[in-house]
Amino acid sequence: MKTKELSQIALMTSLLVVLGFIPAIPLPFIAVPLTLQNLGVMLVSLFLGSKNGSLSMLLFFLLGLIFPVFSGKATSIPTLMGPTGGYVLAWLLVPLLFGYLSSFLKKQSFLGLFGMMWLAGVLFVDLLGAVWLSQVTEMALSQSLVSNLVFIPGDTVKALIATILAYRLSDFRA
Predict the structure, then answer these.
(1) Within a 10 A sphere around the Cβ of 37, how many other Cβ atoms?
(2) What integer is the mean pLDDT of 100-116?
């Protein structure tokens, strides 16, 4: 692995940690708050790709074993054991899923990248999170899925912002 790649992994992991310092917005009807860390997960996926993005996410989780890197000043174990665990576990897989989905794009157009990021970074995360939430809180799965609809508009905006940044600043247009 090259020094440049290691630096990029460390930088994106740092971004995830910094986004965790931004206070989450609690919601009264669901045990999962609104956070900005999932924007960081999308940026990691877009800028680093499958392999390095997954390494960055793994490093983030490993740091979380020792330091409170998750939103709400939480460490990995309590975060994974609580109602947000499914969303956070899905984050580990977003770079891999995004890489797999985007491999089907013949030309990496803006709309294609946004669509793949929306599927991996919004739909997949919210679905896995809803299933986990229903298990941990004993909420009906249908109720959990409906409650998760509140995240879709904001997460879609985050996916759009991440795609714009990556498309403008990266080599997708090459």
Answers:
(1) 24
(2) 90
Q: CA-CA distance, 159 to 43, in Å (whole number)?
A: 9
Residue closest to 32 by CA, chosen among 162, 132, 140: 132
117 DSSP assignment: H
pLDDT in tens, 21-62: 999 999 888 888 899 999 999 999 999 999 999 999 999 999
Dihedrals φ, ψ of 161, to 5°?
Answer: -60, -45
Is residue 134 within a helix (H) or strand (E), and if so which, with residue range?
helix 125-137
Amino acid occupying residue 171: D
Enter the DSSP assignment of 126.
Answer: H
Angle at 39 between CA 33 and CA 44, to 5 degrees: 135
CB-based contacts of 89: which residues, under 8 Å, 6+ apart? 80, 128, 132
Q: What is the dihedral of CA 94, 97, 103, 106, to 10 degrees?
A: -70
